[in-house]
Records
---
Amino acid sequence: MRESACEARAPKFDTVPTCNTDQRSFKAYLSRFMAYTYQLCPFTRDYIMARLRPSAVAAAQACTGQPDGDTCGLSWLMGKYDGSTYGIARGGVGEHMAAMELFQSLLIADVKTPGTSATGTSKGDPSAGTGGGGLSDEALKQTRPTTTADKAGAAILTALFSGAVFVLTWWLVWT
């Protein structure tokens, strides 16, 4: 993979890099969506993996820069760290994200496919997965129909709170 607007240092490319900060991470998104395509359309497996695997090897070779020997470069075509100082000066988030997303994409065959309305289930958990302290399904059920008095009370409380927010905002601005 390559981002042609960013990789002027790559062999056979004499252009001046014109990419912005966001473009430095575009290979990450491409890798991720190629992996999702593989997962959702298994017939694309051979085509996609034939592109992801060599790119992953090249990305690993490009992640050998200093200061600690694990700084990732932007160009994966050189077979080594490309000396990209932009990545070091700015933290190299895009370069590292692209490499890590590509490595992670190679694991897509081991990941369960997303659930659908036909295959997945979704059950609420008021305790947010903590295993307790939540309300039971019975406690969450509405015990009686909503009455006109309930609606009037809600309207009054909404008006009071809205008025309080307005008055406090006015007080903060003008005092």
---
Amino acid sequence: MNLEEKRILITGGSGFLGRQVISALRARGCSRLTIPRSVEYDLTNVADITRLLDQARPQIVIHLAARVGGIGANRLYPGTFFYDNLMMGVQLVEACRLSGVEKFVQVGTICSYPKFAPLPFRESDLWNGYPEETNAPYGLAKKMLIVQLEAYRQQFGFRGINLMLVNLYGPGDSFDLRTSHVIPALVRKFTEAKRRGEREVEVWGTGKATREFLYVDDAARAIVLATERLDVPDPVNIGSGQEISIHDLARLIARHCGFEGELRFDPTQPDGQPRRCLDVSRARELFGFEAAVGFEEGIARTVAWYDDQAAAPPRSKTV
């Protein structure tokens, strides 16, 4: 598929991942992009979706919009995470089918995997158990979109693909401690602890759980490659294929932040899924994607970006 000639709509285009996907598309020569804002279009509302598609007339839709957050946010808002993610996706897919969209790119999550899936996670194990409880509502909402796109291809010939991303990180992420994922949360905690001269930082959980992370620029490149080259509805893992414990992750981030105090792991807080690591061979075989940014390099870039933002003078208000 020649993307340069296509009208492409990107939901969630103003978000952390969305901004990088748009940059990657523009670098590929794509200029006919529509980036709707949530203040103008509520994607849980069918009328707003219909109005958006009538105005943009997209040939390709890349669906990045999602209600997301770390363990804390998932525990606080499970109903919201389930409803918003399910309704945004299900209604958008149906409206795209009815309006003749040529290709739908669904960006999902490895939170859809069973809690105790064997490692590395293979796409064939996706249905062999229930997701980890703290993020199950979010993971299951996204999982239903896999079912929908497979069913729509079978019945209607509607072309949709499913990409399952690991946790992302990088410059431009959300560093709000109420909703952020583990890497930005730790970067902020260690940076602020160093600035205040504190000698201890609390880290949620035992530190034994493992995670896999993908630098946001790599994720954007994977999405563009899949949009261009992938044409099967079966879900495909998108990640780095490398696993790290939260204990080692915290120490790595502390070192890059220059924090030399103690780390206190709090076992009263949840670890989440015990381990996460993907088999990423299908992405390499089907559309040639491999992660390019090494993890330590990515952490260094993220910390440097956060330091620059913290050091920047506040923007003056215009009257």
---
Amino acid sequence: MSLDKQLKAFQRRFAKYTDPDILEAMKRADDALQASGIIDRALKAGDVAPDFALKDASGAAVTLSSLLFHGPVVLSYHRGDWCPYCVLELSALAEVHEEIQHLGARLVAISPQAAPVHRFAGAGSHPAFTILIDVGAKVAARFGVAFSLADELRPIYQAMGHALPEKNAAQDWLLPIPATYVIGKDGRIALSYLNVDYSKRLEPADVLVALKSLQQSESPVRTEA
């Protein structure tokens, strides 16, 4: 089953059992985020990705430049393991991880969650790919994909057990929008996927297509939103 079909199936179940007022509040927040122009401001295909240094779950520092030294990098911004859409996305990426490696690339997930549990199917508690902790969503902000959760949604998230200041060990309610980047070894973004709707994500197959193009020394410039 494609990632899109999995996401839509979960969305239908969520909508069936969720208060319509909550669904309306979430829709208003998505509409406001779209109107904010965040997609226009975010880094896109053709831009150069900024270098950064973040710690992985073991506390080791990882830089983008060190990853790019070995080849292209696939960056997937991940809200947290409390987000079922993120779990489904990372599970789908885990399924193609070996193919990503065979294409000479590294897969990296970035999350503002302070201590990710990494609960997604097929990866166990110790995923084969790197998950980096972006405290305060500072790197997400440099890519232009960070936003502050709408005031209206904060008590809703808290009631669901998703109080972001506690999850992220930060005094804010910052999250990244769904964003996936394929970055060439030269640091230039070859593919970007940006969306304000957290229920929509890039298909892993599109990541593989972009990496194959890079492997063939092509420089595709694609933006999907």
